[in-house]
Amino acid sequence: MSRVYFLDIRKKYKTDHIKLLQRLIDKSSALKLYSKNSTCAIKLHVGEEGNVHFVNPLYIRCLTNVLKTTGAEPFLTDTTTLYAGRRFRADLHVQVAHEHGFNFAPFIVADGLHGDDFYEIDGAKIAGVFKRVNTIFFVSHFKGHLNCGFGGALKNIGMGCASRGGKLDMHSGAKPYIDRDKCTFCLECYNYCIFNAIKKNKAVTIVDRKCTGCGGCMSICPEKAIKFRWNAASGDLQKKIAEYAAKTIKDKKVFFVNFLTSITPNCDCFHSNEPFIHPDVGILASSDPVSLDQACYDMIKNAVDELHPDLDSQVQLYYAEKFGAGERKYEIESV
Ligand code: SF4
Ligand code: SF4
């Protein structure tokens, strides 16, 4: 049974949350992983342009400083996106990181300028930077997710550490379709899709063989007329994310912090700010990403399940355990 450290921010404290985060890390086993001059990647998500609900950079700066007390030399990292946007290319991704306040440590895009710097582990295409670091500290925003029900540490590892080719592999089974009754023919999706997978005639249609399943058109459609076939797509995607996650962290020294705060229905790749689906709960940490995500899910289960009643968001937890990324049983230690 893995231990999950829990800082309940619904309580009143005499000290601020930044100092409490420091206490959470001190209490956990995290700092034992680091040593003088060791290179350490902090894997995070800096938020899409227009999104303000990503993990506050003040917390990440605190974590960076705590890691530095061990003599380690941390840098921040994330990968390029599959969908169109400023994080699609590394140089623009760095700009967004700086604009969002992540300018207190080096920020490196892990899969290169165009997302094609990667290495392979049994067919999984993982961003090249992770081959060159042995210690990775994952900071994840736990929230709802369009295709998976929720996105937490496993999503941040599996999808977030994959190169663009890896992301394509994972999305390959998920193809959206257009609900003609809702479509107003505004053509926003047509203009958005960089893969030319949307055709316009008298109506817009998606060409399956060209579609990568990136989901970008779904986030852009003002009428919510673009949908996934959940049952077929979600389970397969979650399984692949779990598989990639297990392969990415195998033989690495890893630690995970999840922020169960600003709980939006969709991920930080969305360029808009949506109403929260649940009030803030707290910050959780563990050396086991499966236990950590399971604990977060259990704390806001009803809100996640209501979001997508037709999909089972625990598939990722089941497969992550099966592939050896961790275990679902956990015990909570309050800090
Ligand atoms: S963005 Fe939505 S409403 Fe507009 S054309 Fe595409 S599917 Fe139709
Ligand atoms: S049609 Fe397919 S490739 Fe194009 S934006 Fe939508 S999901 Fe992505």
Automatic annotation (TrEMBL):
Domain of life where this protein originates: Bacteria
Keyword Glycoprotein: no
GO MF entries: 4 iron, 4 sulfur cluster binding; metal ion binding
Ranges of residues in domain 4Fe-4S ferredoxin-type: 174-199, 202-231
UniProt keyword annotations, A-Z: 4Fe-4S, Iron, Iron-sulfur, Metal-binding
Name the record gives this protein: 4Fe-4S ferredoxin-type domain-containing protein
Organism of origin: candidate division WOR-3 bacterium RBG_13_43_14
